[in-house]
Amino acid sequence: MSQPRAPRFKKDIRIKPDSVPRAVSARACARPECPNEGSHRVPKSRERLDEHLWLCLEHARAHNETWDYFSGMNETQIEAFRIEAITGHRPTWPMGKRSAGMRSGQRAHDVDDRHGVFGDVAEHPDAAPRQRFLTKPQKMALDVLGLEPSATLQEIKARYKELVKRFHPDANGGDRGAEERLKRVIQAYGVLRASGLT
User: Fold this and answer.
1) CA-based angle 114:120:126, to the nearest 5?
2) Angstrom distance (rounded) from CA 167 to CA 174
3) For residue 123, is pLDDT > 60?
4) CA contacts within 13 A on the Cβ side of 181
5) Which is the most buried residue in 8, 139, 144, 153, by most CB within 10 A?
6) What are the tens digits of pLDDT across the range 61-82?
7) Where, residue-wise, is CATH 1.10.287.110 in the chain?
8) What mean pLDDT comes out for the span 142-161?
9) Are 195 and 173 in contact (CB under 8 A)?
């Protein structure tokens, strides 16, 4: 008779208690006469909202009941605060006036384009034109169209339209002699389109 197998996993997991008990540090209430723990934070003042006092529940309630953020402010200051609160107290500019903070001579929409990404290479003589890597089918297609490897998108499209008009049978009075040449032009343009050059 075979013995029952022992379970693969333990059924009870025991967690060791920390060897050193953690010291619980209770914050004392900020009121000097109060012996209770300061477990509730309240702001020190309107000017220092990021600094807090730690008070017990009873003193925190009393503080909140008497707290008035706008005490000492006149109506004009309160209205200015209300208007600034609409934008989260961040600076704003009237439309078209943001360039006031720009460097002299630079407009708000100007971009530092030292690599010639957004402008013409003639505007940035130090930016070298990007070299295009061409595959053998792409080179052959450009050769069929009679274009250089550095041909632009506009040059490729213009040359394709020109050759289609020249070799189409309708443009040649129905003569089908240039039909084979037209097929090669259309095929070459298709290769360039498929490769993303047009």
Assistant:
1) 40
2) 10
3) no
4) 17
5) 144
6) 998 898 888 888 899 999 998 9
7) 136-194
8) 88
9) no
- Do 150 and 139 form a contact (C-beta atoms < 8 A)? no
Q: What is the DSSP string of 102-133?
A: SPTT--TT----TT-SSS-TTT-TTSPPPPPP
Diameter of the chain by CA atoms?
111
**Angle at CA 143, nearest 5°, toward 140 and 144?**
90
Residue recorded with tokens 């940035």 = 124
The token pair at 182 is 């037209």
Residue 62 is which amino acid? A
Report the alpha-carbon distance of residue 147 to residue 141 in Å, rounded: 9
CATH 3.40.50.2300 is held by the domain 136-194: no
Q: Which residue is it, tokens 């061409």?
A: 134
Provide the token pair at 31: 């009121």
Q: Which of 120, 122, 119, 94 is nearest to 108 (CA)?
A: 94
Which residues, in sequence order, are bridge partners of residue 41? 54
